[in-house]
Design goal:
By secondary structure, the chain is of the alpha/beta class. It has helices at residues 21-27, 65-71, 87-101, 105-109, 128-140, 156-164, 184-195, 212-219, 235-241, 253-265, 278-290, 335-340, 371-379, 401-410, and strands at 7-16, 36-44, 49-55, 116-123, 145-149, 172-176, 200-204, 226-229, 246-249, 270-272, 298-299, 316-317, 320-322, 354-359, 364-368, 391-396, 415-418. It holds the Pfam family MR_MLE_C.
Length: 420
């Protein structure tokens, strides 16, 4: 009998993986640090190497020094399903065990139920014109599903119309408000209007998660499915009150498998949400391959990155991601990219300075210094909810005295003005 496999080394390599130019422009509003990726390289005594990654400023956890020390000298198979390892280390463990057994990661998770998994192009909040340009690129890249962030300071009806104008008839949109429609009274007319457009597929978190009664009312009045994060509400209450049609499932492999089993028992579809580059997307494909109710388009935000860190790209065609068949994750990491994007401490990027302006058709405008300030103001109910004709502008620091004066005032709180 062969000796048990042992981990001999765990390397941590922090990268600054660039966004595509348009995503860089709009992600700078709130998620600029998603470019900071820690790659974990696990080496065994058999010479096998496994890879994983963690977004240091977003993922469901981090890889601790204690976790690294715990796996050194141990058999990687002993840690399968252990979410306490953190994203990147857990991913690398699955990769190296699959390689040792010469099987794909999906074989370590359960029987495959599909070879191609639905996947969505993802974008943060952006203007209708920018979103339409993203949709053009999505179609060219093989996508037919597109999830984006809707906000009350951008005209969602214009966003949908702009995407419709540049995409084929089978292109579908999933829309996420992060609770910013505030309550059922505000949400019903907005969602009913969007229901009339056959491109719209799913609504995610239109109102805050705790409002179970509001979700119950919404579900009886809108045609499209409602989705919420499975972990964000008491599951038993959601099922008893029939507040949603499906879920967003996220977390470590062990947690995702448990959540997927729960959804299957209650007949609830879900989409997997695991943000990262090619490594994360490959793991997402393996999970989607074995989870029966992972029927909605997964979100990994792969399209936001200018480099997937892989030698050969994953195959995406007709809105579906092919599950890799090779051992482990089934992908080869581009070692040259790891050198090219290597980052030194501190592992964070500076925040871009800008002024964010919302304009309404009646001539009123409000200026903010940071996106977080907008969230606070709009979630407090201080501004209109999803009015038609609202527009959003970004004024990046241009060195002018006018910019500096307005930014200084907006840094102390929202600045109200009239533009006509």
């Amino acid at each position: 009998m062969a000796a048990p496999l042992k981990i001999t080394d765990v390397e941590r390599i922090v990268l600054n993986v660039p966004f595509t130019p348009r995503c860089e422009e709009w992600n700078a509003l709130l998620v600029w640090n998603w470019t900071v990726v820690e790659v974990i390289r696990v080496t065994t005594d058999a010479g096998l190497v496994g890879y994983g990654e963690t977004l240091l400023h977003y993922s469901w956890g981090r890889v601790s020094d204690e976790a690294v020390a715990r796996v050194r000298g141990a058999n990687p198979a002993d840690f399968l399903g252990d979410d306490s390892l953190g994203p990147g280390l857990q991913m690398a463990i699955y990769d190296v065990v699959g390689k040792a057994l010469e099987v794909p990661v999906s074989s370590l998770l359960g029987p495959r139920v599909r070879e191609w998994c639905p996947i969505a192009w993802w974008n943060t909040k952006m203007t209708p014109r920018a979103l339409a340009e993203e949709a053009r690129e999505a179609v060219a890249a093989g996508y037919t599903f597109h999830k984006f962030k809707a906000r009350p300071w951008i005209d969602v009806y214009e966003q949908v119309a702009a995407v419709r104008a540049v995409t084929p008839d089978n292109y579908r949109l999933d829309i996420d408000w992060n609770g910013m429609l505030l309550d059922a009274g505000n949400a019903v007319p907005v969602l009913q209007e969007l229901d009339r457009d056959d491109r719209v597929a799913i609504y995610e978190t239109p109102i805050p998660h705790p409002d179970l009664e509001g979700y119950r009312q919404l579900r009886g009045k809108v045609a499209r499915p409602l989705a919420v994060h499975l972990k964000a509400q008491p599951f038993q209450a959601m099922i008893r009150q029939e507040t949603c049609d499906g879920f967003v499932v996220e977390g470590g492999v062990g947690s995702i498998l448990r959540q997927g089993a729960i959804c299957a028992e209650f007949g609830k579809p879900f989409w997997l949400q695991m943000v990262g580059t090619g490594l994360t997307t490959a793991l997402c494909a393996h999970l989607g391959a074995v989870l029966t109710h992972a029927r909605w388009p997964a979100v990994t935000a792969l399209n936001n990155y200018a480099d997937d860190l892989l030698v050969e790209p994953l195959t995406i065609r007709g809105g579906y991601l092919r599950v890799p068949d090779g051992p482990g994750l089934g992908v080869e990491v581009d070692e040259a990219a790891l050198d090219r994007y290597r980052m030194t401490e501190p592992y964070e990027r500076p925040e871009r300075l800008h002024i964010l302006t919302v304009r309404w058709p009646n001539g009123r405008a409000v200026h903010y210094a940071r996106m977080a300030d907008m969230w606070t103001d709009f979630l407090a109910g201080n501004q209109p909810v999803q009015e038609r004709g609202v527009s959003f502008e970004v004024w990046v620091d241009d060195g002018s005295r006018e910019w500096a004066d307005l930014h200084s005032r907006a840094s102390r709180g929202p600045v109200h003005s009239w533009w006509r």
